[in-house]
Specification:
alpha+beta, 5-stranded antiparallel β-sheet, 4-stranded antiparallel β-sheet
Length: 107
């Protein structure tokens, strides 16, 4: 009788522990990555952009990303002297060298 009682108590304890286990929710898009990638097309050039406050990480046409430091205090222009990303009032543009910036679509 004592063995039966111990078996019932053990089964109840295991059942209680299993009932307390919470499953992990599925991750949402962007969760765990504070700098999500935005995709743009700028005059035929494909950009994958991560804005990180002090800099922007930009991949051009699938190549390795380059870091463009922010220019000035506003944090809306990023450049390494050769490549420039401009984000102003919800509009993004891209320039290479001294060429005029080209408007981008996407985001």
């Amino acid at each position: 009788m004592r063995i039966l009682f111990c078996s019932i108590v053990s089964a109840f304890a295991i059942w209680m522990l299993a009932a307390c286990h919470h499953s992990t929710p599925n991750p949402s898009i962007g969760v765990g990555n504070p700098y999500p990638v935005s995709s743009y097309v700028c005059g035929g050039t494909r950009l994958a952009v991560r804005l990180m406050g002090e800099s922007a990480s930009v991949s051009v046409d699938g190549a390795a990303a380059v870091d463009l430091p922010a220019m000035g205090q506003s944090g809306t222009s990023f450049s390494n002297g050769r490549q420039t990303l401009i984000v102003e009032q919800g509009r993004t543009s891209w320039a290479v060298g001294r060429a005029m910036p080209v408007a981008c679509t996407g985001g």
